[in-house]
Amino acid sequence: MGFGPPDPGPGIDMESLPLPASDTSIAVIGAGRLGGVISRALRAAGFDVHGPFGRDEHAPETDLAILAVPDSAIGEAAEKARAAKTAHLSGATGLDVVDLSIHPLQTFTGTEPPGVLHGVGAAVDGRTDDDRQLAGQLARALGMIPFTVTDRAGYHAAASFASNFVLTVLDVAERLAAASGVDNPRDLLAPLVRQSVDNWQRQGARAALTGPIVRGDEATVARQRAASAQHGELFDALAAATREIAGRPDRDAEPQHTEDEGRA
Ligand SMILES: NC(=O)c1ccc[n+]([C@@H]2O[C@H](COP(=O)([O-])OP(=O)(O)OC[C@H]3O[C@@H](n4cnc5c(N)ncnc54)[C@H](OP(=O)(O)O)[C@@H]3O)[C@@H](O)[C@H]2O)c1
Question: Where does the record place the region Disordered (predicted)?
Fold first, then answer.
């Protein structure tokens, strides 16, 4: 067993964390989407991995139990776990019933190869500095980029906007395109989506924004609104939010919003 070096004290430098010892034994509880992926990734990183274990299976005693179960089952799984330390993978859940948490800022369907975690951000936390350090070490051992957040609910809402709500909007785009005669809407819309994301990453939304709203072409916006009648409420809400972005003063590339700015 080895959980790495002693507590370095407050102000942990996530970038210089040492990797945890590879003889650390880890049980993965929960054999769903992320349970399978995280087990494969931990194995590929050289850890002594057991599982993933399904609901009615019994995990052995280990140094660490990672609870890859739905958020509502974390309490029950933590009670059953027989490990020196417990961790969950949830973005929204606090540390009431586990020692540490590692939330990969990525979406998984369960079929991904181990390398899928490389370069992915991971929000890490721990009850103590040692626990937080262990969470950061594990994230780094899997090739992820550990970071900490001050407001979990806000952070998780950001993740939902970036993934779940994007899919909701894309589903509407697919339906509208299909209804207007496009045969393979996902294949044809995907390059547009990817380019928009690339532009947003480089420059921020204001500089990346194109289309009738930012051009002030209200006649075209009205025609689009009429054609989107089935999705009228969503169109109106998104058009209002887009007008707000278009009304921002600076067309130049925006610096990324920072924590200090968010607190101001
Ligand atoms: N998937 C993602 O993209 C993603 C991304 C980041 C973080 N996460 C986090 O990862 C965790 C797992 O999410 P998931 O998407 O992998 O969920 P999932 O696909 O629904 O898998 C959860 C698994 O846990 C099992 N389970 C439920 N209660 C259990 C218990 N008491 N003991 C043992 N196993 C139990 C379920 O079995 P049954 O089928 O029998 O109920 C299911 O196989 C969540 O905290 C989630 O927030 C997921």
Answer: 244-264
Q: Is 256 exposed, middle or buried (0-12, 13-18, 19+ CB in 10 A)?
A: exposed
pLDDT, mean of residues 116-123? 97
Q: How many CB atoms lie within 10 A of CB 225?
A: 15
CATH number at residue 106: 3.40.50.720
Question: Is 4 a member of any domain?
Answer: no
Which ligand 1 atom is the nearest neighbour of the CA of 104?
6
Domain CATH code at residue 211? 1.10.1040
Going across the sheet that includes 25-29, the strands are 48-53, 25-29, 62-67, 83-88, 100-104, 121-126, 145-147
Q: Does residue 67 surpass a pLDDT of 80? A: yes
In this structure, the answer to whether residues 48 and 87 fall within a common structural domain is: yes
As a whole number, mean pLDDT of residues 246-256 equals: 79
CA 249 to chain centre: 30
User: What residues does ligand 1 touch, defined as CB less than 6 Å away?
Assistant: 29-35, 54-55, 68-71, 73, 76-77, 88-91, 103-104, 107-108
